[in-house]
Design brief:
alpha/beta; 14 helices; 8 strands; globular; binds inosinic acid; binds zinc ion
Length: 348
Amino acid sequence: MENETDVFYRELPKVELHAHLNGSVSYQTIEKLIKRKPHLNIEHGMTAIDKGQRRTLDECFQVFKVIHQLVDTEEDILMVATDVIKEFAADGVKYLELRSTPREEKNTGMTKKSYVETVIKAIQQCKNEGVDIDVRFLVAIDRRNGTEVALETVKLAEEFMLSSDGLVVGLDLSGDPTVGHGKDLLPALQRAKNCGLKLSLHLSEVKSQLEESDLLLNLPPDRIGHGTFLHPEVGGSQSLVDKVLKNSIPLELCLTSNVKGQTVARYSEHHFKYWYERGHPSVICTDDKGVFSTDLSQEYQLAASTFGLSHEAVWKLSQQAIDCIFAPEAVKQQLKQKWTDVKPHVFK
Ligand code: IMP
Ligand code: ZN
């Protein structure tokens, strides 16, 4: 924890919709992983970006490679997923959509299928232990791996959507935005959409992806990750903005991630302002709470202090995120009831 976060933001019930599993691993869990694998000679400085530090986006992706070395067995995935879920719950997150790229590790026998099964097992274990959080899973496609792997991933996600008792709800498209092209992934994304998987796509995370963003917006996705360079003021275009507005596609906005990854120069220039001022559904998220040394309470507080939001406005922001979740309507109703029940306590 870098800063003291006010009690209001800690007690605020929250919805987290953009959290990559291996980017969310905390200092404490990394410590346990390092002890399990001392031969790798990995130190903390290699797995997280501390306060005041910044890295290029490319360097951020190197960090994920280091974490992946530490997390390469089913046992690791179970521990990491369980810890991450409990940490979000402890931070006041009541509904979480975790996302992760299924990985095969020949050395340890982990397969993509067993990877997803293990994440699901962690979600179920937390549920059985009575952890106060509703967790769903989005299967992620890493854009660097191309058409075939994307199609394979969609098939896996489809299988689990049908067999996981509602826990697998959608698909994520992520990975280094400077690698690969969205057009190669369209058949897979279209198939996912047709079979009922919800789509959250990282879009316009870096400049000059107008053509790709336009193509992907035509699907259309159900939510957008980042969307940093969609609007005309930063080199995007009005026609892209119009497509987002017309379909009312919520944006998942991750302030610290974008500032530390240097796609946004400073907090005050974050595109949260552009979309929020237009009344567009904008959901505050962490992206990678471990790598970027943050948590969701801090992100809400940062948004409030940067853009001058009152406690009532922050409350509304967290409440409106409920309408953007991928779980069914009944879950939205339960969450809305929860928000109503705790409001007097939070504003006491
Ligand atoms: P994992 O999918 O659970 O292994 O989480 C780490 C992975 O998430 C990375 O290897 C990337 O593919 C993806 N990821 C995390 N943060 C970002 C981001 O800001 N942009 C694009 N992809 C990301
Ligand atoms: Zn992301």
